[in-house]
Design brief:
Length: 154
């Protein structure tokens, strides 16, 4: 099983580009704090994140340097030969779901929980397509759902 769930802050703005056939791809680096400190100082890992398609466009729109994000995806390794003929190995996280957390005073990017919670998210795998937070028909709805016991899967 190849699954990674990360929570961290962007170290710089998202880099957005498109493939030759027009597919969006964005990359960014996520600083993820380590659980233990080294020599009494906080330590972090800086992980390269790759996001594809519509989710990449959403990330480019909403994520900026310093913004906190949760990333769910898989670890991928690849290698290539550089201009000097040396083999270069790269390890990165291919995001399948990105949740934009908090806000730095960005207007329109809060969900009513003081900026702490899920905002527009999506994934490449097709289970959810990205979109605005208001696309969720159950958002901020505290009413009970009328459902019969026969409709429950358990």
């Amino acid at each position: 099983m190849n699954r990674s769930i990360l929570l961290g802050r962007l170290t710089k703005d998202v880099e957005m580009r498109y493939t030759q056939n027009g597919t969006a791809i964005c990359t960014f680096t996520l600083a993820v704090d380590r659980r233990f400190k080294r020599d009494g100082e906080p330590d972090a890992d800086f992980l390269n994140i790759v996001v594809w398609s519509k989710l990449a466009e959403l990330c480019a729109q909403y994520l900026k340097k310093g913004r906190q994000a949760a990333v769910e995806g898989r670890i991928q390794t690849r290698n290539y030969e550089n201009n000097e003929g040396r083999r270069i190995y790269v390890t990165e996280i291919v995001a399948e779901n990105v949740t934009f957390i908090g806000g730095h005073g960005d207007s329109g990017n809060s969900n009513g929980n003081g900026g702490q919670g899920q905002q527009p998210s999506g994934n490449q795998g097709g289970r959810r397509s990205g979109g605005s937070f208001n696309d969720n028909p159950f958002a901020d709805d505290q009413r009970p759902i009328d459902i019969s016991d026969d409709d429950l899967p358990f």
